[in-house]
Amino acid sequence: MVIIKTLIVALGGNALIRPGERGTTKEMVDNLRSPIRQIAELSNEYNIIITHGNGPQVGNLLIQQEATKEVSKMPLEILVAETQGQIGFLIESTLDEELMRLGLDLKKYFLTVLTYVEVDPNDPRFKKPTKPIGPAYNEKHPGFVETSKGWKRVVASPKPKKIIQWKEIKKLMEDNFIVIACGGGGIPVVKEDTQFLGVEAVIDKDLASAKLGEQIDADILLIATDVEKVALNYGKSNETHLNKLSIAKASNYLNEGQFPPGSMGPKVEAVINFLQSGGERGIITSIDRIKDALKGKAGTEFYIKYKKED
Amino acid sequence: MVIIKTLIVALGGNALIRPGERGTTKEMVDNLRSPIRQIAELSNEYNIIITHGNGPQVGNLLIQQEATKEVSKMPLEILVAETQGQIGFLIESTLDEELMRLGLDLKKYFLTVLTYVEVDPNDPRFKKPTKPIGPAYNEKHPGFVETSKGWKRVVASPKPKKIIQWKEIKKLMEDNFIVIACGGGGIPVVKEDTQFLGVEAVIDKDLASAKLGEQIDADILLIATDVEKVALNYGKSNETHLNKLSIAKASNYLNEGQFPPGSMGPKVEAVINFLQSGGERGIITSIDRIKDALKGKAGTEFYIKYKKED
After folding, report:
1. Among A87, A113, A183, B240, which residue has the fewest nearby CB atoms (within 10 Å)?
2. Active site residues of B
3. The pLDDT of residue B242 is above 50
């Protein structure tokens, strides 16, 4: 029996909405075409889980529900659940089309699964909310932070403790499903006795992807974003692109502030977590180079141990 | 090996929002408690698929997105996808809690799966849209219909031709998953060459449930609504509640107009379809009597062949 490796591909926000776009469904599907085509082509070689962000989408839902008092507003975690349906459908139907073109749509099992993620109510990140979301206002309100667009609500981004659907997803991997999961980092919940309570927070989708990888013993975590390689001194004259990086060095660079919190930081952190918890390969690359990066021809590959190539 | 029967429970809108309620998440979860508790208790006895409606919820999303021009509006099928996430999460997390109380949450596999449903672009129902949805306006617009609340957009409700995820759901049944699927009747799509195109329509969730049952060879379709039994002359002095009903008689009553289009009609039609396509049992009952109805102690049970008890 050939053991097929399990690959998690985490699609960043730019896989859906590019700068300057409004996020229409057509734009999102067009942007998904390249990464999803590559994933379809890889589907005989790997067991694949696709995860994705939801930043602009959940922001849009917040703007819409703030715009009217006519209907009851939903708490943030429900809006995250809504984006899992919205984006999940766009990804899955695009995947379906790409598998059809390869004659694989009827041979492959694939599903989008709702995912909720337990967080720790005592996570210190609840005390220091950092994530601005939703509509921008002209004036400050309690729990708001100033952004370049105006005052925005700020929510916590606690660490994912447990992907609740991990055992189901693991089972689906054993059955060779392609699974779309952990949308938007997952619906954040805390467990109280025998109850799940949604919380006003958003979970980083890369950290959630790494946690899922740890729970189901995935082999490869590939984070697909808008740059082909991780860089040192990003945007400066001495910008250096990295082909390979040990996680020891990555941790140092992270501590030195080489990878900013809102962008490359959590991606590098996610890859470090994944490899430290037993993952085999951790890669960061652009959404157009997924296949090349898996072959070692693109992207930044992370290693646990120091390698000569570093 | 014991063969476990597959049971589809279709939860009507009132399982989520009761008359006079605004549809807050607390109301929806409170309303779901009784049917979901029964389903959890039945989960060792049957393989279960839970389907559900989304009428008020998709209407609320339409109202919200009509309320602002700030963000790009989504087509109707995307809003249906959003309600699958929203309601799926409420159902699944409630099921999770009820399984926890029974000590079954870690033993059972259960998932909410995104479902899209192919419809026929030549379905005559596209020519006569009948389903009023979304916000009510004071004046008529093209494609609008007058309702008791005002002028509303009216969309078609085509017949479900194929539940696209049927083979995945069938596989999950073989693995004894509890599955939440076909939310809101499914996301309506038409297939053109190798493309899926969403359509401006809503699919009846009971007809979609029956179609899924046909495709995966389910044994039992139980439609859970707000009345305990199907009635003849409903609301009149000679109202008669039916314990059992042959599908031949049911078809006649349907043609006579005993079961109105927007309410009992499609439920009866769905049960007829399901039994004619090989289903073993078809039941309509209230959300509080699911367990009793399966034991033959409540609800209206439909039969293919004429029985003495009729």
Report:
1. B240
2. 13-14, 131, 205, 267
3. yes
